[in-house]
Amino acid sequence: MRAETLTRIGLRTIALGYLGLLLAFPVGYILYETFAPGVGAVWDSVTTPAAISAFWLTLTVTAIAVPLNTVLGVLTALSLVRGRLGRSRARPLIEAVLDLPFAVSPVVVGLALVLVYGRTGWFGDELATAGIQVIFSLPGMVIATVFVCLPFVAREVMPVLREIGDEQEQAAATLGATRWQAFRRITVPSIRWGIAYGVVLSTARAVGEFGAVSVVSGKIGGETITLPLLVEQRYQNFDLAGAYAASALLAVLALGTLLALTLVNPRKDH
Amino acid sequence: MANGCGGASDSKAATPAGATSGGGSLSLVAYSTPQVVYDELIPAFGATAAGRGVAVKTSFGASGDQSRAVDAGQKADVVSFSIEPDMTRLQDAGVVSDFRTISTSQVAFIVRKGNPKKIRGWDDLLANGVEVVTPNPFTSGAAKWNLLGAYAHGGLPYTEKLLTEHVKVQDKSGREALQTFTAGTGDVLLSYAYEGVTAQKKGADVDVVIPDDTLRIDILIARTKDAGPEADAFIDYATGPAGQKFFAGWGYDPPAGPRKPAPKLRTIEDLGGWKKLNADLFDPETGSIAKIEEAAGVSTAK
Amino acid sequence: MSTLATSALGRLGRVRRARAASPALTGDPIPPRLAVGTIVLWLGLVVLLPLAAVATRSFDDGLAGFWASVSSRQAVDALRFTLLVSLLVAAIQAVMGTVVAWVLVRDSFRGKAFVNTIIDLPFALPTIVAGLTLLALYGPRSPIGVNVSFTQASVALALLFVTLPFVVRSVQPVLIELDREMEQAAASLGAGPATIFRRIVLPNLAPAVLSGAALAFARAVGEFGSLILISGNIPFQTQVASVFVFKQLESDNLRGASAVSVVLLALSLLVLLGLRLLERWGTRHAR
Question: DSSP code of C22?
């Protein structure tokens, strides 16, 4: 018995120590440093016109990229597990492509998008003729964000689909339901936690994306500077306190989305 | 959101300029350090007859990044970069026709307040134990100026000794190198003289030392070919006495040359011009500095 | 069942075994051709086309040019360092991530829910904030006097931070689902906890641990933002491949940047494909 307790406490100490050193202390320290000059100073720092515009831009990009990614992610998951794509020989490749954004360096993402949508890129002439500005403007930032969030929803939904099987949808089909009805009334509710977790993760990722967006944003003050880009700009302009304040805002947004999931689904572990 | 006062201002104190529509618009794409200057200059420009009602958008970032962005399609009416290759890139792309100098400065040493290591000239940098901070020349325009200053003093042998024995850390930009230095790393930072002044104004405990022989730094500005008349008005204002007052406040020198030049001040033309030097020294695969970096692995690898 | 996804699964509680899906009727909610077309278009425009553009650039000067770019001493060293440190980090996370997951599932203490929530924080924090955070506590201005900046350790530190959630979230749901009866049976037969862990628990966790570690590896290989402030980017010492790519980009060496990126991507693709195959092997041999 004592050995077991010792092991338990030992493991707990190791785990908490690791998390503390790596995660809790640094983040806690930053929060402490941020609020050292007082809540008023921090509030001022996050309510400058630049900060407000960055905040709304971050939310706008996220509000476009995440739903887009969710819809397409669910579609892809369904097709890979139960539908046409699932039976094709290319399935492992498609699944690997789905995972690729995890591994691609943000430097490469920016480069890649410029090579395709930039003035001298593959679509450059067509876009110029049509007068559409993709990169250095909102669309480019949305594409970059969709890229980095790509895997989350599909990866969360696919295992759920595999596990729960499709007997209910089959039953519904024999009772005369159309594809769409079966999907809307049976499939979606049964995978809603997978979707929810995927949405939460991609939202958190979209809000915090820095590297890829940095290359394609154009950094136009008041227009294409997101909160993470504002953090960098403030750090560069000797406004360390301001950089911390914007970071704290980002951390709050991130924690907020994570907490939202816990509240929405209390049974996180048994 | 505030669109008429140099982009969205990042301080509570600034009040949005009352820029009404109907006066045209202007996109300024510039390298990062003069953001503090333009934050003051742009509202003042808006108060002049030529600038009234002009909506100014700004974008600041690393000189190379900004130049590449405009090349890749970012909209710009006025561009300003810290090294000539970033400007000639746009000339070659047909985006810009001619350019002029908007500010000058000198390659300088930024040292701890009181200059405890008594660093006065380039040779002092090679003294035993002196740690020099300079950004990476392949990602930073400022670093190129720094190394050209070193090169002007003692050619490749000097530059090699400096890089391999006294430079340990390679931040990706001049500002980051300055932050590294003010955080406590190194004994001396190579930088633009005006960066030292800016740092002091922002509360850093540093002194600026200009060596007897150094290199003049030219900061360039140009209008893009498709820009409207507001671009010319803006450049005239910025290079004129009213605009230059703002630059001077932050330590920048006027286009004609530094106010307090070093006794032996060389220019980039004296060394052979940017085109030649950029290819000879800074080509990422065949340039001399690249080769020094490659060789450095031999002496510093464990 | 070894993706990080299955935490959602765990929350569903009891889970039924999958039965083979019947064809066509329950697959795509919209006509299959439209679905496939949309998916291919989406993946193509967002992922494949841009990456293909990079690959094309790298062969601007043919195979010889590609080889020249990736075989320079600095490129090779950056790639080697990246691989080694990413493997090391993945290995550390494999062990520590499992420990953390174990403690979160099998132990109980005050504040456990809080700890469970913050595990996902590295997913959500921008890399630059991560970099600033680590720099503040473990850099030159450290309040506790610990300064690892500009060392290889700082690279490992930043990578451990950003890859923290992968193994934990991969192992957790498997641990939750694990049937304790086998362990209890072994214990009643006299096996010690170490033996039980080694012989019963570990084989069941292995696919999940591997999967999480592989993802951590893939992520570490491409990391940029959190490293750039604290590592000093010293060639032949602390310079990782993504920083090297960045340098080439900044010097207009698009061919060089693309070539090294292609190598990085190919490596990651290999690891990820291997992971997918491992998962399928794992589920086919499931208990």
Answer: P
